[in-house]
Amino acid sequence: MRFLPRNKFSTKFKIKFIFFVTFLLLAMQSTVYAQKKYTIVLDAGHGGKDAGNKGNGFREKSIALKVALLVGERLKKNKDLKVTYTRKNDVFVELWKRGDIANKAKATLFVSIHCDYHTSNAYGAGTFVLGLRGNKKNLEIAKRENAVIFYEDNYKEKYEGFDANSVESVIGLSLLQEENLDKSLEIASLIQNNFAFKLKRKNRKVKQDNFQVLRETIMPSVLIELGFLTNIKEGRYLNSKKGQKEMAVSIAQAIEKYIHQLKLNTVVASEEKPLITYKIQIGSGKNKTATKSYNFKGLKEVERVKKGVLYKYYYKSTSDYKEATQFLKTAKQKGYKTAFIVAFKNGKQITVREAKKIKQT
Fold it and tell me: Beta partners for 85?
């Protein structure tokens, strides 16, 4: 090949060349985002020897499975999504195994699908995220879904310290799930809004409680109660192909919207200079408390932030992880024994592990 002398390159050629290189780099960057796969784990509740509830003769395990498979069918049409099921047929899968499947798949999102039960003629769809016990009614739902543990071999060893019928066990939170709570609330709200406003189902809203299957996962997770099989009208709807398809489409559309928002946040975050901040979370709850030191055992610089249906309370703020550990020590000495460090990147909550990696690069 014969190379042209430098002075032979025209200005127009240089402009075209620069444009081409810029276009190529942008295309490569876009390809990186396009190639990222988001793994969605769909968990059809119960199965096999565990039929779930059988209100009016309808079977929860069958309805949950059919809806989960329909959700997966739709999601698989999106090239950026990978779908994994905890079960694809009528088999019994232990609760710890469901979480283990999601964790090993490094899932972006875990969605567990169920049908509700009540002694009254209650009806409507609800969505749950992991959280502190909200009220007695929610606790009863959590205890009922957690009771599947008793079908498992050696359940006492597998769930050491957890009693499905104990209030003390049901209200415990894992720290990692606390970090994922914001995203769990985000997807739960999208799902619940579709049920209430698109399908016009009775809105039982997004609630928090401690379902063991959610405790086993280390990513944003939700548990859906499609409706009450004990309500004959709602049971018939959920047992019909029409009802199952409508509920599945609503769930899938919400997941697609959530992933789209996740992509946008990823692109924006990648263009920003990372600003890492550590805070000490000393509590969370539905009560709005003034951030005065006398309300927090003498701790000053307490910040209150509303996240979904909860208020979160943070003590101190620093970009130095070692300093954050000292703040944590102070909080625990003041009596906040369950306090822990949370991390933020450009104002968006991330895991502490992710934050420490960013600081090292």
Answer: 42
pLDDT in tens, 89-103: 999 999 889 988 998
pLDDT in tens, 293-310: 999 999 999 999 988 778
Ramachandran sector of residue 213 (left: φ over 0; alpha: ψ -120 to 50; beta: rest): alpha
The tokens for 233 are 């009208």
pTM: 0.62
Question: What element of type H or E holds 168?
Answer: helix 167-170
Which residue type occupies 185? L
- Can you tell me the distance from the alpha carbon of 193 to that of 205, in angstroms, rounded to the nearest whole number? 8
- Give the integer Cα–Cα distance in Å for 313 and 100: 31
Distance, in Å, from the CA atom of 49 to the CA atom of 40, rounded to the nearest integer, reads: 26
CB 172 within 8 A of CB 210: yes
User: Residue 100 contacts by C-beta under 8 Å, 6 or more apart in sequence?
Assistant: 216
